[in-house]
Design goal:
The protein has one domain: Histidine kinase-like ATPase, C-terminal domain (Heat Shock Protein 90), CATH 3.30.565.10. The protein is globular, with a radius of gyration of 15 Å. β4 and β5 form a beta hairpin. It contains 4 helices and 5 strands, in the order βααββααββ. By secondary structure, the chain is α+β, with helices and mostly antiparallel strands. It comes from Blautia obeum ATCC 29174. Belongs to the anti-sigma-factor family.
């Protein structure tokens, strides 16, 4: 969890859910609902929902490779900065830099476009990824609401 969220204009929540594809929609709606506290534009909500969708889908398809596991989505904000951390405890990524290249996919046989991280970067203001093989992956995203 992020530190320094005791300010008056701060809030946070943690959602833990199974890596079932139907829960991708739950994550999107939850992130959008949490974000409404900051009075975002419809475009900002759409950007957030797309980035969350890509991150959760990566957990399901790549992190757990179709097996069931736990996904955590931690949402927080300070002032106008919205933070989203999405964590899986799956197979991890051996080469994060390579995985973040546009069009790269480790699952070409599954019709994956390799654009997940590219979309996350395009729709959020900051993106970083931490991963360790056989331990899982954390995607950190930040979006400034109401520029």
């Amino acid at each position: 969890m992020r530190e320094d969220t005791n300010e008056v204009s701060a809030n946070e929540m943690l959602l833990i859910f199974e890596s079932n594809p139907v829960n991708e929609g739950l994550a999107r709606v939850t992130a959008a609902s949490f974000c409404t506290q900051l009075n975002p534009t419809l475009e900002e909500i759409a950007d957030l929902k797309t980035a969350v969708s890509e991150a959760v889908t990566n957990c399901i398809i790549h992190g757990y490779e179709g097996r069931r596991g736990r996904i955590e989505m931690h949402l927080s904000y300070r002032e106008r900065e919205l933070y989203v951390d999405i964590t899986d405890y799956g197979v991890g990524i051996s080469d994060v830099e390579k995985a973040m290249e546009p069009m790269y996919t480790s699952k070409p046989d599954k019709d994956r476009s390799g654009m997940g991280f590219t979309f996350m970067e395009a729709f959020m203001d900051e993106l970083s990824v931490e991963s360790e093989p056989d331990k899982g992956t954390v995607v950190h995203m930040k979006k400034i609401i109401g520029r």
